[in-house]
Design a protein that fits this description.
By secondary structure, the chain is an alpha+beta fold. A 7-stranded mixed sheet has the order 5-6-7-8-9-10-11, covered by helices on one side. It has 2 domains: about 70 residues, Alpha-Beta Plaits, CATH 3.30.70; about 210 residues, Ribonuclease Z/Hydroxyacylglutathione hydrolase-like (Metallo-beta-lactamase, Chain A), CATH 3.60.15.
Length: about 290
């Protein structure tokens, strides 16, 4: 729960505030971009919500915040908003909400499927989500993009009898995983679910492509709100920027309309536009990689 005594001075005056426990994970800025903005190493309230829609989005951000760093001066109606999660993105995909501090506030997604639902990376283990996932048919598979974002995957797997999927190079984060990906070749585990190894950010990072529309990108790429383009991070590349560049090239052969990242802004673009943006990102990364090599 946010502490008014730790309220950041950069917040504008008003009902909502962010305190100094914020880890700058960006979740609130994704959910309520008109209310929250970046300020140095924190997110802060840049404008108090005015409409009911803006207030609801701000309360969703309050609930999703992994560190409980968002608060209100007076009692709020977040109990009414909690039912919004999992939050629909586009059928059959939802954003789980309740980002976990164990994954530095990474996003998790839920996919409904007639042959078994999927959880992509893990949110916090909360009774509300357990109940809602159960009402929606449970969780058959938990796809883990890489070791950073496993969070409470084991608890969800135990509750629902889920089969966890992870690359062998990341297996130390989930040693009991039931399905282990090997090598760097794309693998269609089940119809409509293509696993694409994308080493770079970590050695065994993978993305998941669902029905050639939804790319669950982990920490491989995301949309930059500031630059209005697809981005990848050399600064936060823990394994190899050269390999991550090669992995990005591999995605040029795929078609998708959504990029749904673990960290960073999601985006929905026509496939032709998405491919053009991806090609431009590869060009920028290749220049950076060439500079490193030389």
């Amino acid at each position: 729960m946010a502490n008014i005594k730790k309220r950041l001075p950069q917040n504008v005056e008003g009902e909502f505030f962010v305190d100094s426990t914020c880890i700058d994970c960006d979740a609130c800025r994704q959910l309520a971009p008109t209310t929250f903005a970046a300020s140095g190493e924190y997110s802060v309230v840049c404008a108090q919500p005015q409409t009911e829609a803006e207030k609801r989005k701000a309360l969703r951000a309050l609930l999703a915040c992994p560190t409980g760093s968002i608060g209100t001066l007076h009692r709020n109606n977040s109990k009414e908003v909690i039912g919004d999660f999992p939050l629909p993105i586009e059928d059959p995909v939802c954003y789980s909400g309740f980002n976990s501090p164990k994954s530095y506030g990474g996003n998790s997604y839920f996919v409904q499927h007639p042959e078994g639902n999927w959880l992509i990376d893990s949110p916090r283990y909360l009774s509300h989500l357990v109940r809602r996932f159960g009402e929606l048919g449970g969780i058959a598979y938990i796809f883990l993009t890489h070791q950073d974002d496993v969070a409470d995957a084991s608890k969800y797997a135990e509750t629902f009898g889920s089969r966890r999927i992870i690359h062998r190079a990341e297996l130390s984060a989930q040693p009991g995983a039931e399905i282990v990906i090997d090598g760097n070749e794309p693998t269609e585990l089940f119809p409509g679910f293509l696993v694409v190894p994308t080493p770079g950010h970590t050695r065994g990072h993978c993305v998941l492509l669902h029905h050639h529309r939804f790319l669950f990108a982990g920490d491989h790429l995301w949309w930059s709100r500031i630059n209005q383009r697809l981005e990848a991070s050399e600064e936060f590349c823990w394994h190899s920027w050269t390999e991550q560049t090669r992995s990005m090239v591999r995605l040029r052969d795929l078609s998708f309309e959504w990029v749904l990242p673990g960290h960073g802004q999601q985006v929905n673009l026509p496939q032709t536009v998405m491919q053009r943006e991806l090609a431009r990102l590869v060009d920028r990364m290749s220049v950076s990689t060439h500079r490193l090599v030389n």
